[in-house]
Predict the 3D structure of the following.
Amino acid sequence: MEKTIAWIEKDKCNGFSRMIDQTVIPYEYKKIDIKTSSEMYDAIKTMVVRGAPAIGIAGAHGVVLSAIENIQSDDFFGDVKKQADFINSSRPTAVNLAWAIKRQLDLMEKNKHLSNREITELLIKNAVKMEDEDIEINKKIGEFGSAIVPKGATILTHCNAGALATVGWGTALGVVRSAYMKDKTIKVFADETRPRQQGARLTTYELIRDNIDTTLITDGMGAYFMKKGMVDVVITGADRIALNGDSANKIGTYMLAIAANYHNIPFYIAAPKSTIDPKIKSGDEIVIELRDKSEVTIINDKPICDERVNIVNPGFDVTPGSLIKGIITEYGIFKPDEIYKLFE
C-alpha cells in the first residue's frame, strides 16, 4: 500500500511533501506537491489532506518546509516556530496536528547547538520516521481491533478513518481491513457523512477497491438498520480524545453512539495514542471547529436552500466516554476511563 502522504527528498536538506488530493476523489485520483509552508496551511485548511493522523504528518512536513524557507535566517528557531504556529491554527480540533508540530519543535530545541542545515536534515529524517511509525501503529490498531469483530459481522462506520486519513492502512478502516483478512464474510455500512460526504466519497472508495462488501447509507439511516438487527458493531475514528475517554469525531458520531447504546450494539473508537490529549480532562474542553456555511448550502456548485436561511456548521461533535465500549489503540483496547494509564 503506497503512502497517502510522503516526503520527497531532493537532497539531504531539500524536498517537498507529496499527498493525495482528497477533494477530488472519487472523480479523480491525483497527487499534488506541497512546496511551501503556506501551501501546507492551505492544504490542511481546505482538506486536501484530512484525517487526524494524516494532518499530523502534514504538520511535520510543514515544519520542514518552514525550516528550508528560513535556513539562512539569523532567528531560525523563532521564524520556524512562528510559521509552525500558523500551520497549527489551520484545524483546531484534531490534536495530532499540534502533537506532530511539537515533536518537530522539540527536536529543534534539543539540537539548537547544531547549524540550521543540520537541524533541517534532522527534521526531514524525523518526518519520514513519523510516516513509517504511523503505518505500523495503524496495523497494530487493526490487529487488536479485529479481535472484537464477530465472525460474519456487519460493521457501521462514520466519516473516513482509512488509509486516506492516515499515511496508510487506517484506524477504524484498519480494523475493518485486519478483520477482513481473517474473515471474508464481514460487511460494512458506510455513512455518507454530510456535509462533505467523506464516507460516500472516500470510505466507499477505499473499501470497494479492497473488495469488501460495502453499503452506502445516509446519515439518518443508522438507527433504522440497528433496530432491524443488521448492525453488529460500530467503529469510528477520532480527532481528539480527552483523558476521561470523551472523543471528538466528525459531526454525527455522537448521534450514532446514542443509537448504538440504545440498541445494545458495541460502539468503539479506533485511534492512536497521539490522538489522546492528556492536557484535557473531558470533552467539554475540546475546541469544535466551525466550518464555512457553503459546505451545507452548496452541492455540485448549486445552492440547495434559500440563501437567507441561518446556517451553523460544526465540523465535529463529542461522544461521552460512557457511550464507548472501548478505545482501540496500538497498545491494546482500553475502557474510556482507563486510557490515562497510557500516560503513567
Summary: The two ends are 34 Å apart (CA to CA). The first strand starts at residue 5 and ends at 11. The mean pLDDT is 97. The first helix runs from residue 37 to 45.
